[in-house]
Write a structure and sequence with these properties.
There is one protein chain. The chain is α+β, with helices and mostly antiparallel strands and about 70 residues long. It has one domain. Helix content is about 35%, strand content about 10%. It has 2 helices and 2 strands. The protein has a two-stranded parallel ribbon with strand order 1-2. Helix 2 links the parallel strand 1 and strand 2. The chain is globular, with a radius of gyration of 12 Å. This is GNAT family N-acetyltransferase. It comes from Deinococcus actinosclerus.
């Protein structure tokens, strides 16, 4: 299943949370017992919000800005 990516400008809204919850709910309805999450450049606040949904990132990939 692809990840529900959210544009950084919208991550402060409830959209990210709603997509993660909907993805998890849909997977459970289809019999999934384990989901693997990859985090790409998530902020500490996003990681904490994910934990509130019962999610832990198996892979965390920081994104570094280049100038």
């Amino acid at each position: 299943m692809g990840s529900p990516g959210v544009h950084p400008a919208l991550r402060h809204t409830t959209l990210r949370h709603a997509l993660l919850r909907a993805t998890g709910d849909a997977a459970r309805e289809r019999g999934a017992r384990r989901l693997v999450m990859q985090a790409w450049g998530d902020t500490p606040a996003e990681t904490q919000a994910d934990a509130g949904l019962g999610l832990d990132a198996e892979t965390v990939t920081p994104i570094h800005l280049s100038r």
